[in-house]
Amino acid sequence: MRIVSGMRPTGKLHLGHYFGVIKNWIKLQQEHETFFFIADWHALTTSYKNTKDLQNHIRDVMIDWIALGLDPENGTLFIQSKVKEHAELHLIFSMITPKSWLEWNPTYKDIKYNLLKLNEVELQFRGGLRDTVRQFINMIPYRVEDFERFEEHLLEDLSSTFISALFEGEIEPELLKKLNVSKRDFYETDTYGFLGYPVLQAADILIYKGQGVPVGEDQLPHIELTREIARRFNYLYGEVFPEPEALLTETPKILGIDGRKMSKSYNNAIFFADTKEEVETKVMKMFTDPQKLRKNDPGRPNICPVFSYHKLFNSNPEGIQQIENDCRSGKLGCVDCKKTMLSFLEDFLEPVRDKRNEIMKNIKSVESIFIEGSISARNVALETMEEVRKAVNLK
């Protein structure tokens, strides 16, 4: 099976990237033909105003991918923007993709409203309108074939109108001040590229005739949209593209040192580029059970981020069970628990850190891997585009 996937370059990778993505990619490399790319064009969808560090971020991802074990001998590693055919196929796909498909992409508004801190406001508005909308539908003098779908359409349109009116100052202007967002923020986020990024994703996958795409559950709508675009192209111009399957992967949720999901934006991540001293400092600051105030207090390891790390990095099930028992009984204090966990975490991080340091001494060798990979990827993309141009009568 041919596998295609990418990662946006946002800087150095952390533990969440490894357990959420890279670990699975390494396994897939051993079993399938793989194309993994650094999605630098996708980085522009939300960060187009701040590109000064983009090349450094790309380099960071290159280093971490190789240090963590992705093998250029077992698959193609490349940079998206070095294969210009992605953009050409994206352009052609954008001509045949109905705008409604993109507007109905459930992650489009989620991401947009998250960026603008509007999710809660929009959900409250929708919830307050639902009964009114249902009454309205019941009053319509026409037969409604799909009540729930029509209801969602109306709620979607009304909530979009509400948000637009909010930013135009037609509804409670003070609310925007409370949320610390502005009309400018709204329209600068509302770009064509942001709306159309799933079409570029479809091009990323289909230009290699990808058959499988490893994704989390939240990305399933993107793969279904890719399948729809492939079906539409094949219907209009003849069979060119396969319909890729989503390879749903279950990954452990990696908590940051503050107990939230690990994220660079939360400033709670443990990075592979961190020194041993930096990791120790972060571990000793980690949140634990808030009810375990003193060493002898009984703890609740099931809610403790430190214990979740024990389960990830301690390979001895009996040792993990002993730590759980001692925590619950009050025999084990949080400081000692963190120190024990740190030793297992360092056993995992140290070889990656050493390899990363070696790579840093000869960064040109890693850059050449991605240059060669981009050339190989482009050779495949060129063949696909020859078929596409012929099918669309552009040749």
Question: What are the defining features of this structure?
Answer:
three-stranded parallel β-sheet, Tyrosyl-Transfer RNA Synthetase, Rossmann fold, two-stranded parallel sheet, 3 domains, 61% helix, mainly alpha, 395 residues, 5 strands
Over all CA atoms, what is the radius of gyration? 24 Å
Give me the CATH superfamily of the largest domain. Answer: HUPs
* pLDDT averaged over residues: 90
Distance between the termini: 30 Å
Question: What low-confidence regions span 5 or more consecutive residues with pLDDT below 50?
Answer: none
Measured by DSSP, the beta-strand proportion falls in 5-15%
Tally of DSSP helical segments: 17
Number of strands: 5
Tell me the CATH topology of the largest domain.
Rossmann fold
Helix content: 55-70%
